[in-house]
Amino acid sequence: MLYVVIAFLCLAILMYLLLGGADFGAGIVELITPGAVREKVRTITYSTIGPIWEANHMWLIIAIVILFVGFPPIYTMLSVHLHIPLVLMLLGIIGRGTAFIFRHYDAVKDDMQRVYNLIFTYSSFITPFFLGVIAGAMVSGQIDPNAPDFYSAYIGSWLHLFSISVGIFTVAICGFLAAVFLIGEVEDEAIKALFIQRAKVLTFLTFISGGLVFLAAEIDGLSLTKERFTDWVSLSFLILATVCLVILWKYLRTGHKTICRLLAGFQITLILGSFGYHYFPDFIIVKSGENLSLFNSAAMGLPIETLGWALLLGSLLILPSLFYLIYSFQRRPAEL
Amino acid sequence: MDDLIAARSQMALSMAFHIIFACIGMVMPFFMATSHYKYLKTNDYHQKELTKAWSRGVAIFFVTGAVSGTMLSFELGLLWPEFMLYAGPIFGMPFSLEGTAFFIEAIALGFYLYGWDRFNKWFHWFTGVVVGLSGLASGILVVAANGWMNSPTGFDYVDGKYINIDPIAALFNDAWFTQALHMSLAAFAATGFAVAGIHALMLINGKNKVFHWKAFRIAIVYGGIAALLQPISGDISAKDIAVRQPAKLAAMEAHFETSKSASLLIGGIPDVENKEVNYGIKIPGALSFLAHGDFEKEVIGLDQFPEDEQPPVMITHFAFQIMVGLGMIMMGLSVLYFFSTWKKEYWQEKRWFLWLFVLATPLGFMAVEAGWTVTELGRQPWIIYGFMKTKDALTPIPGIQVSFMIFTAVYVSLSAIVSFLLYRQIKSLPNMEGEQPIVNQSSTQH
């Protein structure tokens, strides 16, 4: 049953990165769109993600519940040592979710819209950035339960080049996903061309910032590069991801909606898979070397058993209805 | 302000806001589904507009409830990591089920809000019902988790370790039913009165009278029935905590000394130093009766507990008095409403009648806040009653005051914006006096 729980944890993280990420990315795309067509971008964003965005963010809750029920030492370690980036990420989540709904449900469309838009776009940037920082910090080996002072315990644990570069990489990934996703929703040729161009910029950024992650790892003295290039499975994942990227570039021109989306999703899955495979089963790399893994921190026995059953039963209800929801609104987007 | 007080204040503040958003988000879908049902049955244009208007409210409150709930799921760890380290696996069952319920609610809401004229009309209506049911289920599950903190079961505590964990036993702890019943009724009563109050105010304004009457009736019937049932649930709760958490009952009643034939205290200012109560009304034997169903029985007082295991008396007592008092007022208003419908329909045209309900708008939520104050403060100094103290669960990171200030600012501004949005939504309701539907912006907005 432990493996069932781990599988759901991986699924929740992947789904959050893909669906939630595309969602954040919509804000990022809006941020880098010229003012003149922003309103159009907003409309497209709303009609595409409006019906499903709330469900997208449930994946985060599922992941966090799995962590605190099944792997409490991991949850606790994160909450203590990454307190500050977690709070910043939470502020982003609040700002984004509420601004997205407020701007739509404000019965009067006046200057308040500018406030909502500002909050929406910037928190769309901040949230994935800190998510990335947190992910980076987890594997950076800078988390130190025996830290002697405030700085090394609560700031040094996440404020370093590697985590920051993972943060930037995450932002780029989200923007990239959204841009590829939105291309399929546009009828207007001019906007489509703009989106394709933005998707290319973001693909390029994803590539660059991905390289930056390795560079930062070198500078910070993490042996990521060396280890990665000797770990054949995770290396081949990365190579395959890069191949996907090349194919994607080709298809972006012709703009084939489904293939582009699948490729983009597959590519991100590969990147996450490469990271995941590389570290598995370790979840938090601790300075002292006493890493927290999904095995040594699992609440074995009935907690994991019941959690596994709850997830299995829950997914019987959730997955079919979620697919039906996405399918229904894919076939015919929500009208405004 | 030390870190412990800051962390407790931040938690209290987050809960206080979340409970309002969550209550409305879980109860309003039922109102919405009711008016929607009436619309489907009678094809009444007002009911359709009402359904749409309420569904916009549901959307706003669902999101604020969801983000504030997401925050809470992190804050549990950010503020009380020691608690979560041990409690997570034990009381996690309701949370993992709640995750499912919440997910279903989000999916159903997607179908409902965007599903007008897309799906079979009864399927569409049904998704609205699912929003309500899964919201209610979420609420019950989360309250069951809180029940476990009051009545920890499902583990053995040996040498400082929590072993032999049984999450199912923890889910069905002794407090889950009484607390979940009391809270569900409270959510219906509070939301019902709040919504009815707002529509009563619109009725006084005089625009769209027929529309607002239909809205008022639906809301007050839900709220009124819940308010009438609440005293029964309160009685079950009182008898339950008299046995399970006597210190809490003693603090609620400022009952300092264990005594037989204990008297019920109404009002009064507890003097904690001298262990006495000034200015209160005492009804002899009534506390014994309410707690144990017998006017003679002994009721345990605070003297049975060491100083450092006593909950704060003053605030717990006041909060309890406020909750009961407001509950009584709401019960009275419910009687008034049902009586007028039955015998004195012309009262409903009177301004005084409407004004009573306008004034009652916030009462339910004030009672909810007061009630949670009783539950949470009455459990202190424990976070897991009898096993772990709140101060031992506190995060080691210093400077929680800063995060308390940030969260305060966030919640205050969120509430301000939500109120502002609701005000604008209500103000922009179209004129619906005529029989014929008038095309307007709100009917094109989903």
What's the SSE blueprint?
The complex is a heterodimer of chains A (336) and B (446).
Chain A: H1 2-31, H2 35-49, H3 53-70, H4 72-81, H5 83-105, H6 112-140, H7 150-155, H8 161-183, H9 189-219, H10 224-230, H11 232-254, H12 257-279, E1 282-284, E2 292-293, H13 302-331
Antiparallel strand pairs in A: 1-2
Chain B: H1 3-42, H2 45-79, H3 81-114, H4 121-150, E1 156-158, E2 161-163, H5 167-171, H6 176-205, H7 209-244, H8 246-252, E3 259-260, E4 264-266, E5 269-271, E6 276-278, E7 281-283, H9 286-292, E8 298-299, H10 313-342, H11 351-359, H12 363-379, E9 382-384, E10 388-389, H13 390-393, H14 400-427, H15 441-444
Antiparallel strand pairs in B: 1-2, 3-8, 4-7, 5-6, 9-10
Helix pairs in contact in B: 1-2, 1-4, 1-6, 1-14, 2-3, 2-7, 2-14, 3-4, 4-6, 6-7, 6-11, 6-12, 7-8, 7-10, 8-10, 8-12, 10-12
Family (chain B): Belongs to the cytochrome ubiquinol oxidase subunit 1 family.
Organism (chain B): Algoriphagus aquimarinus
Protein name (chain B): Cytochrome ubiquinol oxidase subunit I
